[in-house]
Amino acid sequence: MVNTAQKKVVLAYSGGLDTSIIIPWLKERGWEVHCMAGDVGQGAEELVGLEEKAAASGAASCKVADLREAFVSETIWPALKALAVYEGRYLLGTSLARPILARAQVEYAHEVGATAVAHGCTGKGNDQVRFELGYRAFDPGLEVIAPWRNWEIKSREDAIDYANNAGIPITATKEKIYSRDRNLWHISHEGGAIEDVGSAPPADAWTWTTDPKAAPDEGEIVTLRFESGVPVSVNGAALGPVEMVETLNERGARHGVGRVDIIENRLVGMKSRGLYETPGGTILYEALRTLRSVTVERDTLDLMERMAPEYARLVYNGQWFHPKRRAMDALFTEAMGSASGEVTVELYKGSATSRQVSADRSLYRDDLASFTMGAGYEPQDSEGFVRLFGLPGTVAAAAEREQ
Question: CA-to-CA distance for 107 and 345, rounded, in angstroms?
């Protein structure tokens, strides 16, 4: 008979309500709990003292790993090249972080000799799929423990009561019971009064971006430089991946850029309402979309537009490590090879609007685009083109008239 008291589990740990109460719950069942916390840019207020908090909750160890560079370079930049947006609005902030966190968790499980991994995702959410598909990509032999699927706790109110009874320090209250996820790319807000789709979001739900109505009355101009679809500088200053996102976050948040209130379709079937704040990402998407419009050939651009929702759906559904994603990345990387240049974006009261674009290899030709007829275009050629292009419709219309 296996002595389960010696078995080790690595918990994906944030220090929040759900993962904090999982530590004593696992210990009660004979597990030695080791915590893995990934720094993906959630901020010092969530990371400082995390090891001590985990120990106070009963963890045998807690590792905090700086994953910010990997987060931006390995997942955010590829999604940016694809201009992937889920259901037309969500810039995938939580979805893009999970693969990096899951991989680090498996690596720590190997380091401490754990036979299992655990997470605090609910049985109703998307994150359970994202984490577990990540685990399987790197070690399908690890046991997966998901307490929300089988413990007696059924709500966040129950979770708060459990924490209080166990003496676990938490910041969530029954009055402000929002579930938040923050990283370098965004902040998401769910739960509590947000779930009332018949009402506007509570003012206290937003925590990062300025209310657009209270944003500065004077707009701000930022100029971004891209190399093959990857941002490399802001206003002439070269920046690394992490600094790039941090700089644009600060500027965008000040002007109220990047707020989204969406009712989305979760992978597991139900609709849910979420609030997202993605200030820097919104600026980058606006700028790159403009640069792409003058550097990518029409039919290739059309293909990218059709593939972007599929890419976003794949990421949202937790299939980051699927071969299909790597194949799609190859296409977007190739297509964006010509997307180098500068874009000027104006930030003003919640909006980010491209104003100027200068591409290293632009497909925009003044002599072709101008209303003035030039030598590069023969207007007479269009007569036969129009006739042939409209031929199927002309035949169909004639058939209808005959009937």
Answer: 40
Q: Which residues contact 402 (CB under 8 A, 6 or more apart)?
A: none
199 is catalytic: no
What pTM does this model have?
0.91
pLDDT of residue 88: 96
pLDDT over 80 at 377, yes or no: no
The H or E element that residue 303 is part of is helix 298-316
**306: burial class by Cβ within 10 Å (0-12, 13-18, 19+)?**
exposed
Computed on alpha carbons and rounded to an integer, the radius of gyration of the chain in Å comes to 25
Q: One of 18, 20, 95, 156 is an active-site residue; which one?
A: 18
Check 20, 39, 95, 98 and give the catalytic one. Answer: 98
Active site residue 103: no
Cβ-based neighbours of 191, under 8 Å, separated by 6 or more: 156, 177, 178, 179
Q: Which one has a higher pLDDT value, 148 or 226?
A: 226
Give the residue ranges of DSSP H helices in 49-180.
50-56, 68-70, 77-82, 93-112, 127-138, 156-166
Residue type, 375: A
179 noted as active-site residue: yes
In the annotation, is 211 catalytic? no
Domain architecture of the chain: domains with CATH: 4-72+96-176 (3.40.50.620), 182-359 (3.90.1260.10), 366-402 (no CATH)
Candidate list 20, 95, 179, 188, residue with the active-site label: 179
Amino acid at 101: L
What pLDDT, on a 0 to 100 scale, did the predictor assign at position 166?
Answer: 78
Tens digit of pLDDT for each residue in 113-151? 999 999 999 888 899 999 999 999 999 999 999 998 989
Catalytic pick from 127, 182, 188, 340?
A: 127
Q: How far is CA 109 from CA 10, 19, 45, 55, 105, in A?
A: 6, 17, 26, 18, 6
